[in-house]
Design goal:
Blueprint (H helix, E strand, L loop, with lengths): L2 E9 L5 E8 L4 E5 L6 H16 L7 H9 L8 H21 L4 H4 L8 E9 L2 H13 L5 E5 L16 E3 L5 E3 L5 E2 L5 E4 L1 H19 L5 E4 L6 H10 L7 E3 L9 H8 L4 E3 L10 H5 L5 E2 L8 H14 L3 E4 L7 H13 L3 E5 L5 H7 L4 E3 L2 E3 L12 H6 L5 E2 L2 E4 L4 E2 L2
Parallel strand pairs: 4-5, 4-15, 5-10, 9-19, 10-11, 11-12, 12-13, 13-14, 14-15
Antiparallel strand pairs: 1-2, 2-3, 4-17, 6-7, 8-18, 16-17, 19-20
Helix pairs in contact: 1-3, 2-3, 3-10, 7-8
The structure holds D-mannonic acid and magnesium ion.
Length: 414
């Protein structure tokens, strides 16, 4: 069964997506997500210029060999662009293999280890009343775990806080407050950051949320890479009374050993990995038990083949999955995460920021969300399609993630 076509599909139904479609000579088609927010065209070019021509005529069944061929064969290994491109090929080949087997993909990954995946949703508010509204909105939609992001007094815009300005109406008629970090435009918008203001404010917010919604609701918070290790240790400690499910990306983790200082001072569970794209990015974090949840997405860490390997490694240290699932991971990438999450033994939680109706029109995913749980489609393969007509009706639009500067103008982590 040879690969006969490899199409790189770029579309923008509300936000940009890059999708790879592989088709075999006997008509089986597979999809892979290659969306790298704010750098979409780089991956599209890597795929169309350097990967697609190499795939034509290859045996579509050789998933592992193709992975190694694209990883070792590239010579220039790792990195977000390369690993997103490999991820798309890998996912598409798994989609094809499951369709040939006439089984939903999770069955090829060892079958179901659970009846559904607990997910968390994104609640946010510029102030407490806004935030409480947003949490109630998510609880009403059935979410059983909530990520809490808040505005910070004195700062104009902060990561993760949706403004009612971009409220929309969801498929169920519910009001949606979507925080889409990438902003349309030729260059990134610049945000201003003040760590001390943030550290003073966040504990009071989590205290108020616990006061309002009680001790049981799993609460998560994303620091989004903005603190030094000692600031992260301080925050983790100050939030211990509020029993977080996890504190995410507390400090940039290129230097994995930075987490030793954080671990030394707090028992708040730590989640890291959404910007990681290979197993090597986790070695110290796993082997020194420095985190509790690994966050890589299928679309960014080399596909199902590579992410399953990462979770097998994590399982040795009782570290669980917490797969990245914002709207810039397409329904193809999310479906792949759901199938993988259904099968692995060390599933923790899945991020689920709901895609817009326009995105669903393009991909028509058949996974289901009910009672706070995601369940994989029972259709053969991933259970996601791609509507070419809708895709062509929404051409790419330049959009970038913001950049961040401190009050004195110093570049900082966004
Ligand atoms: C975030 C993302 O969902 C998350 O945990 O960190 O929203 C992230 O900012 C975007 O995916 C970047 O593209
Ligand atoms: Mg995050």
């Amino acid at each position: 069964m040879q690969i006969s076509t490899a199409e790189v599909l770029v579309s923008s139904p509300g936000r940009n997506f890059v999708t790879l479609r592989l088709t075999t000579d006997d008509g089986f088609a597979g999809l892979g997500d290659a969306t790298l927010n704010g750098r979409e065209l780089a991956v599209a070019a890597y795929l169309s210029e350097h990967v697609a021509p190499l795939l034509i005529g290859r045996d579509a069944h050789l998933i592992e060999d193709t992975w190694q061929y694209l990883y070792r064969g590239a010579y220039w290994r790792r990195g977000p662009v390369t690993m997103a491109a490999i991820a798309a090929v890998d996912t598409a080949l798994w989609d094809i293999k499951a369709k040939v087997a006439d089984l939903p993909l999770y069955q090829l990954l060892g079958g179901a280890s659970r009846s559904g995946l607990l997910v968390y949703g994104h609640a946010s508010g510029k102030d407490l009343p806004d935030l409480f509204d947003s949490i109630r909105e998510h609880l009403a939609q059935g979410y059983r775990a909530i990520r809490v992001q808040t505005g910070v007094p004195g700062l104009h815009s902060v990561y993760g806080v949706a403004s009612s300005a971009n409220a929309s109406v969801g498929e169920g008629g519910e009001r949606r407050y979507d925080y889409e970090p990438a902003r349309a435009g030729a260059i990134p918008v610049e945000e201003t950051w003040d760590t001390r203001a943030y550290l003073r404010h966040v504990p009071a917010v989590l205290e108020a949320v616990r006061g309002e919604f009680g001790p049981q609701l799993p609460l998560l918070h994303d620091v989004h890479h903005r603190l030094t290790p000692i600031q992260a240790a301080k925050l983790g400690k100050s939030l211990e009374p509020y029993d977080l499910f996890w504190l995410e990306d507390v400090t940039p983790a290129e230097n994995q050993s930075a987490l030793r200082l954080v671990r030394q001072h707090t028992t708040t569970p730590l989640a890291i990995g959404e910007v990681f794209n290979t197993i090597w990015d986790y070695r110290e974090l796993f082997e020194e038990q420095l985190i509790d949840y690994a966050r890589s997405a299928v679309s960014h860490a080399g596909g199902i083949t590579a992410l399953r390997r990462i979770f097998d490694y994590a399982a040795i240290y009782q570290i669980k999955s917490g797969v990245h699932g914002p709207t810039d991971v397409s329904p193809v990438g999310l479906a792949a995460a759901i199938h993988l999450g259904t099968a692995i033994p060390n599933f923790g939680i899945q991020e689920y920021m709901r895609h817009s109706p326009a995105t669903h029109e393009l991909f028509r995913p058949s996974y289901t969300f009910a009672d706070g749980m995601l369940a994989p489609s029972e259709a053969p393969g991933l259970g996601v399609d791609y509507d070419d007509a809708v895709g062509q009706a929404h051409p790419y639009r330049a959009a970038y993630l913001p950049v961040n500067r401190l009050l004195d103008g110093t570049m900082h982590d966004w």
